[in-house]
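stage 2 :: seqdesign
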């Protein structure tokens, strides 16, 4: 792969990582810690929503982020011709 394309590839990869990890930070830290009192006014499956985000939501969301990242990277690999 030419050096110019390699830089674009890694720049796009880092952009994906930054966006996805920002969403994970939002779900795990902001919703699970900072906004816990406001979210606890709602219930999900019998549990307070703030508690759910702190205990389960951030884990589920992290797994979802992994699946999204796999899809984005497969598409990026095909675009630059580095797929297996």
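stage 2 :: out
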């Amino acid at each position: 792969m030419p050096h110019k394309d390699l830089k674009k590839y890694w720049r796009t990869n880092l952009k994906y990582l930054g966006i996805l990890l920002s969403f994970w930070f939002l779900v795990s830290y902001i919703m699970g810690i900072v906004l816990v009192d406001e979210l606890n006014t709602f219930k999900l499956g019998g549990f307070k929503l703030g508690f759910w985000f702190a205990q389960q939501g951030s884990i589920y969301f992290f797994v979802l982020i992994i699946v999204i990242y796999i899809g984005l990277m497969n598409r990026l690999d095909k675009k630059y011709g580095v797929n297996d």
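stage 3 :: structure notes
- The mean pLDDT is 90.
- Residues 3-34 form the longest helix (32 residues).
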